[in-house]
Amino acid sequence: MEGMLMRFKQNQIERARRKVFGVAMPTIANTFFVVLNNGLNTIVEENGDILITLIANYDQELQNAQVQKFIDEKVDFIFIIPVDSETVKPALEASREAGIPVINIDTPVYDKELVLSIISSDNYKIGTLIGLDLIQRLNSAKIVIIDFPESVSTTNRVNGFMDIIKDKPQYEVVEILPGDTQYLNSKKAMESVIDSGIEFNVVMAVNDLSAFGAMDALDEAGINSGILIYGVDGSPEAKRLIAQGKMTASVAQSPNELGMYSAEMAYVYLEGKPISDRIFIPVYLIDQQNVYDYGLISWN
């Protein structure tokens, strides 16, 4: 009996020593975020700690409430990928007031002073890589952009792209429409462009799901050749489409590395060591020339 009591007390002590991390995700409809979450969880579990994941389903008010739930539960650390880079501010302010450190992953917030660090891909570079690839392939272009202006990360991608083609009038953006980084909304946006009769020969989508929506709209309209399609993420499905010649290119991110590195930096901070307030994870363009170097099955 005494031995059982001692083991019970020891288990209580071990549980009390475990750190609890909360991650506020915008969605898991995009497997990018599923893989990112797995990366976080890999490092947290390796350290014997706990990761709690809450999904906002693209609702910033809900995400703010979820962060408050983390605060009420007195978690040790919060990771956040905001739905909206601006209106996430109340959640960040509440976290700071509660003394809980926050690492902002993937989609940068506007109020950078409210987070410990922003860890993301270099989204501006993503846009420049697409722009540079385009001008190597075509001497002129009429371009449709499927955008998501509420997000800093996607806005930076568009800005990088636009800076490459500025002062080059032969590369004309004929339409910019919101696709909200979602398949169905992007498909509807592309359908509206097709119905309008606007001439175009390039689609630059801010993520792969948006590119897939645009591609399916084009296929259903019988426009399945002569259009360059660019996406962002380097998802397994995008790589398969690139290999088949149905998609031009995708600038690859590494969600697993993004998650693992963010968790590692959280532990560095919790050990009392400083971390950089801005960290970029490398990105690279995948096309038919190199797609098999990266494999068609996984996000690697």
From TrEMBL:
GO MF annotation list: carbohydrate binding
Subcellular compartments: Cell envelope
InterPro entries membership: Peripla_BP_I (IPR028082), SBP_2_dom (IPR025997)
SUPFAM superfamilies assigned: Periplasmic binding protein-like I
PANTHER family per record: D-ALLOSE-BINDING PERIPLASMIC PROTEIN-RELATED (PTHR46847:SF1)
Transmembrane segments: 20-40
Biological source species: Anaerosacchariphilus polymeriproducens
Keywords associated with the record: Membrane, Signal, Transmembrane, Transmembrane helix
UniProt feature coiled coil, ranges: none
One cellular-component annotation, GO: cell envelope
Protein name listed in UniProt: Sugar ABC transporter substrate-binding protein
Gene3D superfamilies: 3.40.50.2300
Predominant subcellular localization, coarse grouping: other
Domain annotation Periplasmic binding protein: ranges: 21-273
Pfam families with a match to the protein in the record: Peripla_BP_4
Family affiliation: Belongs to the bacterial solute-binding protein 2 family.
